[in-house]
Amino acid sequence: MPMTTLVCLALAVCLPIITFLALRPSQKDVVWRRFGFARNTSRPSTPTLEKQPLSKPLASHSSALVTAFPPFQRSQLKELIRKLSPAQQKELGQLSFNQATFESSLLRFEEDYSDADYSKYVYSGFSIREIKALGAFPDYSTLSGVPMPSPYLDFDIEKARPRPYRPFRWPYHQTMSLTKLEPDWWIELESTYKERIAQRKDLYAKHGPGVLQWLPGSELACKELMEMVIQFICARYPTYFTLSEDKLWLENKILGIRANIREKHPLLILLDHVPEDFAITLRDPETGYYAFRAGVICSAMGWSLGTKIGLRLDEIHQPVPDYKEKMKFSMDRYVESLKAIDDSVHHPVISIPLQGQPSAVLTPSHSFFSKMPTNKPIQRGSWDLEVDKPLFLAPGSDRHAQDGDVDPSRIHLRVDWQTLRRLPLSGAIVFNFKAVFTPIEEFRTEARIPSLLLQVLRHAKGNLMEYKHAPHINHIVTPLLERYETEQKEAGLVERNWEVCTPDESPLFPQWEKKWHAQQGF
Question: How far apart are CA 181 and CA 232, in angstroms?
């Protein structure tokens, strides 16, 4: 056999082997499965409850994405030094930074920071040594550039109502209307607190990793998120939450408990004390793509955390209606519009085309994620019309069956009020959202809301309304809203010739504070 033939055969055998060995573990698993083999992929994390769909092969990505890092907050260390103990200052050491060293010393995707070498870095620009020197509960307001909330001294958990979100728009397009996050309202508690905490813990008991799960590499982000949330609720609701001086015990006076926050995983502490959902996404240093790596999600309708955990953002959701035709612009437009965010907290920043479902906020572009700073958190709301108050429906549940006997009092507006922010130390981007239910009968006294919702239900594209799950109860909702609209025009709440449009107060409504305060007794 000629030597050239032997060389070609050797290359033909060796190249696939070399290529396979160069793959990451997750990519090797895909290859094994495609050839009909199964590998033991157990890892020291909460097991996945629901079977994951096979991911599509990773598309070729731009080298610019691999080398794109979020804006660093390292300059904030100089401000924090003054607040640290002498021992911490000594451990922090010199604050020198070298970009080349940083890029060559990144923590691996699934690597636990607590066991990592002190010389390594997370993609936020902080070294492991610096993160550990800061210790538990550093000043996250300084680190992030987002101020701590004002103490809510008039807050009464028994009477508290959520703000009356009505995120209706006209003209209606399937977009993400983003506004600047109001720092006082990142975590919003209300009178259903005890009921929701019990309901969420029951869901975790029944569904386990289908609603709460964490994957390797998310340890720092989970700890940081828990600490930021506890710091927030203790500052915002000081009557009900306090953290011990040694930063070990959280006292929850609503539930009458005192919890050691180091005895459980951070996400379990959040489950026990905060009735909001959190989804943590992390950057893969090998690709620059962000993936869903940890979270607690108890208010999902027709999907679950267990079917999404571990996936890249572009793999998480099926396209929403009109995506191919009208929604190919990415959230990068938001990055270019950051300068438009001002102190007018209800002023819309920009409408960003929505690229996925559910909860509507989980699919921005990876480029957007790579550029999002810590000091520009955002908020938005998505809505549906529901019979009763379903918080969690497992995948495959049917909400479309039309029921002609439903009493109008059972129909509610469900608003998933969502925020999106980057954590300063881990660099994780965190979505959090809560479901707020309002009987549509309340719209009767809310100026312009019946007319606005009627316009959307009557004239928005059918596929968009189907996506909102509205058609199955339209035959009940529409006549009710028509009656309310007539009453409001006769009472002068709405001008008879008013041209329906998005209210200036959006996502609220004219004189909302008067009604909201009256409902709470002040």
Answer: 14
* Least confident segment among 208-217, 285-294, 347-356: 347-356
Please report, for the chain, the start and end positions of each structural domain, with discontinuous segments joined by +. Answer: 74-135, 175-398+405-520
DSSP letters for 404-432? TT--GGGEEEEEEEEEEEE-TTT--EEEE
Please count the residues of the chain.
522
Residue 223 dihedral angles phi and psi, to the nearest 5°: -60, -45
Which residue has 């209706």 as its token pair?
168
Place of tokens 């080349």: 100
Q: Following CA atoms 230, 110, 290, 178 in sequence, which dihedral angle do they give, to the nearest 10 degrees?
A: 0
pLDDT tens digit sequence for 102-115 = 999 999 999 999 99
Given the DSSP bridges, would you call strands 175-180 and 429-439 parallel, antiparallel or unpaired?
unpaired
Residues 6 or more apart whose Cβ sits within 8 Å of residue 75: none
SS3 (DSSP) at 180? strand
Q: Kindly report the CA angle at 214 between 108 and 187, in degrees rounded to 5?
A: 110
- Asked if 109 and 310 count as a contact pair (C-beta separation under 8 A), the reply is no
Cβ atoms 358, 277 nearer than 8 A: no
pLDDT > 90: percent of the chain: 60
Alpha carbons 471 and 463: distance in angstroms, whole number: 10
Q: Specify the DSSP class assigned to residue 307.
A: G
Ordered strands of the 350-353 beta sheet: 212-214, 290-296, 277-283, 429-439, 411-422, 378-387, 175-180, 350-353
